Amino acid sequence: MNIFVCFRFFGGDFLTEMAISVDLLNYEIKEGGSIKDISFSFTKGGIHGILSPFGVDASLTLELLSGIRQPDSASLSLDGQAVDVSSVDWKKKIGYVPKAPEFYRDLTVYELLDFVGEARGVSAELRLRQIEEALELVGLDGLAHRLVCRLSEGEKKRLSLAAALLGNPSILLFDTSTPEFFDLIRMLGKHKTVILSSGDFEVMRELCEDVVILSDGALLASGTFSELEAQLARSEEKQSLAEVYASVEELSKENSNKRSSILSREEMGR
Amino acid sequence: MIAVFHRQWKSFAHSFYFYGFLTAFFFGLGALITIFHVSFQYANFEYTLSYLTIVLALLLPLMTVFSFHEERRGDEARFVQMLPISARNFLCGKLLAMLTVLLLLTVFLLLIPIFLGLWGTVYYPSAYMAIFGFLLCGAAILSLDSFLALIFKNFWVALGVSYAVTGAMVVISYFSSALPMPWGRLLAKLSLFSTYAPFVFGIVDLYAIGLYLSVSVLFAALSLLLARKLWRE
After folding, report:
1. Predicted pLDDT of residue A31
2. Which residue in A36, A125, A131, B115 has a CA-CA distance of 20 to 30 Å to A230?
């Protein structure tokens, strides 16, 4: 990974968007459970987190924001302008890195990125440059002509990030918290609005400026880590934020597992 | 739309189904030319085309079902839905790629009357009118098959239903006269193969042209509605 490539790659479009605000996000999971009236907002730029026990609700929220799943209701705004998550305009503004990325299996890495770039409306000349730079940034520059189906899981995640960067979107939705991406996420957070989802409290604390904590489909708390710690200190609770989150995680363990398997089944049935 | 079009052509280039489709089409064409023009020594390419539409109808479901089911598998569906591609552009890209295949096959067919003309007298207006009819009929079948491919999630069910519908139309075109009068006539009017008959005799049949265009537009529109539902737009 080369920091100079990163600056060159994102040079022109540095933080042109303002805050992203989500109001009353609702999603009913068919076999039971839901996301209920979640509202939060993130400022432009930086790394923001969505944290939930085992990452189940956090991943689901990111899927809803990416337009892969359609929320039952939500009011989403970017820079004060209302946006529709399923619209082409919104999808051009975001890059989504899913937890388990899958692609067309018969294409090479380069062919796949070329398709993504073309779909994102990047001109042929610019596409060639952006693909080379994105591959260099994620460390896949030697694998441009390898078939996607022959990539390892880690390489697929890197490819997914490279694909998400094409077209220079201002918002990155990152549904993975593998340590190998930490440096890259930090670097990208200086140039874009990165929204990270995870179930790991320590990862969130290490990477994110502020966090939205969800449990059983509802909003538990939101703010910067210092604000949340201060709120806890003011309350009668004598535990640290990490300890409180661990208790929440323990309490919702069974429910989270159930929701996770329901969501997987729902996804397979689609 | 252009991205989907390019992607579809790459997919064809890597696909066993597509090569199977081409092989079977040219085998069918070769066999019909051998029968009609070599064995029976007919100069009318229209006869060959009337059977070639049936060969095409039997092969098109392979191409349409293959094309659409790539994105009906869970993983690829999620990948494509992440991208800024609308349902309309997705469908138009796919249909355009398949229409281009049909168009290229038609361009190849345009050469055959000239080739046959080297050995005898060919009535070109009639032959080319039949080729024009072949293109329109192919587009209508393509549109219908695309709609069926989008309805059913399971590859084999979609293929089976497409063959059942095509088979029914072929049967109707041959046996409509055996059915009770009004029904037989109505079904023959609606069968894409019965309607091809005037083209074989070099007749510019406006009803047939209208039917083919209507079926093409109707099922393309219905496919768009289905694609939008799948895209949740």
Report:
1. 64
2. A36
